[in-house]
């Protein structure tokens, strides 16, 4: 009887030792695995439930990049923030940025989906706004080989020089027409440079230029305003981008502004395309090949 009890005690002790050994081994393995795994960057303080760190940016008079730079001084070259419910990593180190854009470029090549990109980017058909996928890679290949190729720049290389020369002649003609005695001509450089740059862009993209005088003046203002609104609104983040539950609410009317700007850009580009079709059908030869 005592022999049986002794054997049962020994068996129980062996089983207990095995269980404890397995448990200790499991803990050690888990610790080793966690030690080998890269730990996520620490999150910046000040995050709120649901809205994340939006309050830090909305409550500051500084531009966002200045606020992020101040946070980088405190939390180091890499840290986490939450933009609403979306996590984000902030990198402010040249070495880390270089590694991300080389070794890990496929991971960070995608783009987030947000309202401005959806509305102004033709529902992400504009490959500058779309996610990193086969479509993006094909569009990038076409852009690099057709629109931004060495041959294309060779065809368009004289546009900038010719536009600068044309703008200088316009200034001279204006001086001849408007000068009073020996007085000079007051020139608004901001407007003059803006008109010249706009014509360089339009000449390369659409193959046409506009004069800041006469019948073209209204069209120049229209195109300049459309471009300005397009680029301004692409950087606007609405509340629904950070908090998806509020995406149906247009706080501040930003979504309506985006829809209006997208419609205006569509009309302008459609006019250019239709004009190119008419020129092609009528057999009008072009010495320079624009993007369209």
Task: Summarize the SSE layout with pairings.
Layout (H helix, E strand, L loop, with lengths): L1 H35 L17 H5 L5 H12 L2 E6 L2 E6 L2 H9 L2 H4 L6 H6 L13 H14 L2 H29 L10 H17 L10 H19 L4 H4 L11 H28 L11
Antiparallel strand pairs: 1-2
Helix pairs in contact: 8-9, 10-12
Task: Please summarize what this structure is.
The protein is mainly α. The protein has twelve helices and two strands, in the order αααββααααααααα.
What does this structure look like?
This protein is mostly helical. It has helices spanning 2-36, 54-58, 64-75, 94-102, 105-108, 115-120, 134-147, 150-178, 189-205, 216-234, 239-242, 254-281; strands spanning 78-83, 86-91. It has two domains: 39-108, no CATH class; 147-281, no CATH class. Helices cover 62% and strands 4% of the residues. A two-stranded antiparallel sheet has the order 1-2. A hairpin with a 2-residue loop joins β1 (78-83) and β2. It is globular and about 80 Å long.
Work out the helicity level: 55-70%
Tell me the count of domains: 2
C-alpha geometry: globular
Radius of gyration: 31 Å
> If you average the pLDDT, what whole number results?
80
**What is the H-and-E element order?**
HHHEEHHHHHHHHH
Keywords:
single chain, 292 residues, mainly alpha, 2 domains, two-stranded antiparallel sheet, 12 helices, 62% helix, globular
């Amino acid at each position: 009887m005592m022999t049986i009890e002794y054997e049962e005690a020994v068996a129980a002790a062996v089983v207990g030792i095995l269980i404890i050994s397995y448990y200790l081994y499991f803990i050690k393995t888990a610790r080793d695995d966690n030690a080998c795994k890269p730990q996520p960057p620490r999150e910046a303080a000040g995050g709120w439930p649901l809205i994340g760190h939006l309050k830090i940016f909305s409550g500051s008079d500084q531009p966002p990049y200045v606020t992020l730079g101040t946070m980088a001084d405190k939390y180091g070259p890499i840290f986490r923030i939450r933009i609403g419910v979306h996590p984000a990593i902030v990198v402010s180190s040249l070495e880390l940025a270089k590694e991300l854009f080389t070794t890990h470029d496929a991971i960070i090549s995608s783009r987030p989906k947000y309202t401005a990109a959806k509305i102004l980017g033709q529902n992400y058909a504009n490959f500058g706004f779309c996610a990193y996928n086969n479509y993006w890679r094909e569009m990038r290949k076409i852009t690099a080989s057709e629109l931004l190729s060495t041959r294309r720049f060779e065809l368009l290389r004289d546009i900038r020089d010719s536009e600068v020369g044309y703008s200088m002649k316009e200034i001279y003609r204006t001086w001849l027409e408007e000068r009073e005695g020996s007085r000079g001509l007051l020139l608004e450089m901001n407007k003059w440079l803006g008109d010249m740059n706009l014509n360089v862009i339009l000449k390369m993209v659409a193959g046409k230029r506009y004069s800041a005088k006469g019948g073209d003046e209204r069209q120049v203002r229209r195109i300049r305003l459309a471009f300005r609104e397009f680029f301004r609104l692409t950087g606007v983040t609405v509340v629904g981008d950070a908090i998806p539950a509020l995406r149906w609410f247009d706080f501040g009317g930003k979504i309506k502004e985006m829809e209006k700007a997208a419609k205006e850009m569509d009309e302008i580009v459609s006019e250019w395309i239709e004009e190119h079709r008419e020129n092609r059908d009528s057999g009008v030869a072009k010495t320079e090949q624009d993007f369209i």
